[in-house]
Amino acid sequence: MVIFSVVKKETSPFDGQKPGTSGLRKKVKVFKQENYLQNFVQATFNALSVEKIKGSTIVVSGDGRYYSEEAIQIIVKMAAANGVRRIWIGQNGLLSTPAVSAVIRDRVGADGEKASGAFILTASHNPGGPHEDFGIKYNMENGGPAPEGITNKIYENTTTIKEYFIAEDLPDVDISTIGITHFGGPAGPFDVDVFDSAEDYVKLMKTIFDFEAIKKLLTCPKFTFCYDALHGVAGAYANRIFVEELSADESSLINCIPKEDFGGGHPDPNLTYAKELVARMGLGKEAPTSEPPEFGAAADGDADRNMILGKRFFVTPSDSVAIIAANAVEAIPYFSSGLKGVARSMPTSAALDVVAKNLDLKFFEVPTGWKFFGNLMDAGMCSVCGEESFGTGSDHIREKDGIWAVLAWLSILALKNKDNLAGGELVSVEDIVHSHWASYGRHYYTRYDYENVDAGAAKELMAHLVKLQSSLPEVNKIIKGVRPDVSNVVHGDEFEYKDPVDGSVSKHQGIRYLFEDGSRLIFRLSGTGSEGATIRLYIEQYEANPSKTGRNSQEALAPLVEVALHLSKMEEFTGRSSPTVIT
Ligand code: G1P
Ligand code: ZN
Prior knowledge:
Blueprint (H helix, E strand, L loop, with lengths): L1 E2 L3 E4 L13 E4 H4 L4 H13 L1 H4 L3 E6 L5 H14 L4 E5 L6 H10 L10 E5 L11 E7 L8 H13 L2 E4 L12 E7 L2 E8 L3 H10 L2 H8 L6 E4 L6 H11 L7 E2 L20 H6 L14 E5 L6 E5 L2 E3 L1 H15 L10 E4 L5 H9 L3 E4 L4 H8 L5 E4 L3 E4 L7 H15 L12 H12 L1 E12 L1 H14 L3 H11 L6 E6 L2 E2 L6 E2 L4 E5 L4 E6 L7 E11 L9 H16 L1 H5 L6 E2 L1
Parallel strand pairs: 1-9, 4-5, 4-6, 5-10, 11-12, 11-13, 16-17, 16-18
Antiparallel strand pairs: 2-8, 3-7, 6-7, 9-10, 13-14, 14-15, 18-19, 20-26, 20-27, 21-24, 22-23, 24-25, 25-26
The structure holds 1-O-phosphono-alpha-D-glucopyranose (G1P) and zinc ion.
Zinc ion binds next to loops.
């Protein structure tokens, strides 16, 4: 057994180590500066309290992006030096973000131990590679992201840090081989446990869904399926679940080999970046070379996001969570005794609200970012939740879950088609969405992103929008000047949230313009970018009349878009005449 020693290293603070919506994300070259990662890791240990860290079990893994392996070796050596008892690592350093959450909550180690938290190494949907992004975030004992109280403490620590501890003579661990390696240090034994990345997650999924029912659907020759992992970590789960467990054809999987640079692509599952899937599903500019599959889905780098597609049909994430909630009790065994409540992030469309109202479910509107759902779930107040940003999930873990969302849709499709598999027409994804709109109405929805704009200009634009809200007559005058057909703004504010569980208040969570007819315009600055600022503009309009729910959404929303661009003076402030991404 190797015996290691601990050294104290002097260091000094770096600017800007403030965790954003979901951890600290920076360019790889920033992370590679001497002591940059070390400072953040020590600051995290300090914030959690060194006493709590001593003797604990901590998970370290991620989406396998460039710099992950080096980062894992550094964190292992620092954990050993700070008195951590065991480090758990997914094989090859791979664990999807939802799998990390599942591992923290459910995995029991060789000595009966449980993990108390995790460092997740990912920048989610941001590109990876030597010139792209790396990221790190800490998740707590409940499996969810550290709350703001902790991330603020981490940040404070990064501003004053003077030293960190590291076991420099601990040899690099072999993360490619499953097994436990024992070491000894000044504080006693230290183990590194490398385990199968998919085991715990697959086990959990089997307790939630009816795998037999899904298997019947996936093995029905009429039902065709395509899953695109965009070369992210979802690939490590897709083969195990869809092919090995559910007998889908291997050819159903594309880009399912995890790569450290995501094959040079942008691992974000939307109509812009999931190009290959979009083309196959018949949603590209050119006609597909073969008949599109019945069902398609994609994931982001760390597999917590999902995009759901039907044949030539896109399901908005806001509709997706509403449809899952409306069908969950019937289609998914985990929910058979009912939903505790449902929740969405503020900019997500109100499609879920209508379902909640109709089914008489508790409903919550929270700020952007998954951490706000966690408190509700821990308190037993919420079962299903989602965000417009391709995030959907439930209280089985404390992160959004890309593969879970796909299994939820497969469950709904399996239920709706249980009598058609042998003969007759299949109920399609599009049929399911249309019948949902017929019952609940449709929320036309789009999001415009202006990426990497000048940070000062973005701030000015936001300040202008807040100021404008002090006079609604002025707002309505501007609107009528551009589009007399758009209804009046009846309320304007900056969204503020008081957590019903712990009473904490989050302010400045997005600027809202609410219209008389239920339409909404929302402006927010992204909290996950690594360079400049990203302005997000969310546009929504409700249509209750079933004969009017079939319009093209960009066409239906064009008047509101025009109003939004005018009110915000988007081009004047940013110099941008069009967004970088439209979803
Ligand atoms: C974005 C999304 C948000 C999501 C977050 C993490 O954050 O908008 O819904 O929770 O990524 O995946 P933003 O960049 O808008 O702060
Ligand atoms: Zn992600």
